[in-house]
Amino acid sequence: MSLSINTKRYLWLVPVALSLAASMALANERGNSAAAREGAALNCMANASPNARCRQALTKPIGGDEAQTRIHDERSFQVGNVAFDGSAAGLSAAVQAANRYYGTYDGLQGEAAYTVEIPQDWNGKLVMWTRGYGGEGATLNRVVPSATFRNAVLGAGYAWAASSYSANFYDVRAAIEDTNKLALEFTDYVARDWSAVYDEPSQRLIVGVSMGGHTAAAAVERETLISAKYPVAYDGAAPLCQAEQYQFDWLGDYNRVAQHLAGFGDAPYEDFQSYLPAILGTLFQSVSGSNAWLPAPGAGERLQDVATILTGGERPIFRDFGYRIGTWQGAVLGTGGRDGSINGILARDAYDNTDREYRWTTGEITAEEIAFNEQISRVAADSNPNPIQPEGVRWLPQVQGDFSVPVLTMHTLGDFYVPFRHQQLYREGALVNGNADLLVQRAIRAPSHCDFSASEITTAVNDLFAWVNEGVVPGGDEVLDPAVVAADDYGCQFTNNTGSAGRGALPACP
User: How far apart are CA 156 and CA 94, in angstroms?
Assistant: First the structure.
């Protein structure tokens, strides 16, 4: 990489550093706790170029702890096919005529694949696309976004680039660092591999779905800007149907509540899969046929009530449609019995429900709910399970709602797997950090995970471009007012069924 790119990499950190330094000033004076050390490290990095010296305290044992190692560091991955073309159905003339480049580069945990598409009339601006969860296999497949996304991006004169990441599993750390490195160096790779010369992008945006939404949201967080090995000053972000750290609370909570309601509360949680068939038989009328995933009277209905509250409260589409999608029930229940290390992404157990209050009613808590909360199994997290790392972002990067660029999100109301609750937590964080005016959120009346229509994707992409380039703030939905969210017409404003699938049975907007 040229010296000029390296120089640009850190110059923009100055205003971020000043902001973060003020907020972390007290942390440097507090004891020897993990939190104090994290505060000291961030404070140090906020006042100097990111380097290992600033994180030195974090690599020492805390209260007798030894340095953490994790299973994921021992995993290895190989890049598969990297080629792609413009022959996919539904591609516009601009996409078909575009220049396409692909290859490999050195990522955080090994080799990663890159894909790049640049229109003939490139405006010099770049959108980074971040893929969702890639499973647990050893092969890293090249990433190409949907025809809808490609049409919208190239139709506006933008180029896009995407990384396979250098690891599978829920590795958002690799996702951020590998995506950022590609955002900074893609012109070098294209010149090296294809002898094609382009100027550095004049603007960088980041857009992703699901785990890729987590990646996009975390990439613009202040902590990431300070701690990343490859920091990028994105000019805007669109984390769509995004997960974040609450995702693993939800997975652990739903399965433990199901276990308890089905009468297995005293059974070892790690044996969850062995008694899952009995749980299903107790809590659901059936898992196939016309009654598939309908709650059984009593305990099954209670489970649905608890799940509704845990996932964002009463809202259209969720109970009658999203909750009954077997694919996503299976995905959530399939995590039952796992520890809180997120399948080896962390070295320690991060799940903690010691202070969780499980409810199936609203208003004042009932005596029955109090009894339930006293009886359900409680689990405490290990100490400091997700520390700041000696180099780069955390193993599980955090989404705190602490950003300084335009952010546009969308989330389907029926999503059972990565629930709408993520949007409410994002809004709460933005309010705490004083940047709620930079967050626009849209509720979409669809039942599944990331189940957006072509029209909704196209509109969101173009609205993000207009916001970043012209200052036109797009419209959005209220996500925190329970009465608004529960209304029959909630989500109608930005739902557009043109180019959608599977929405024919949904209730029409009033």
Answer: 10
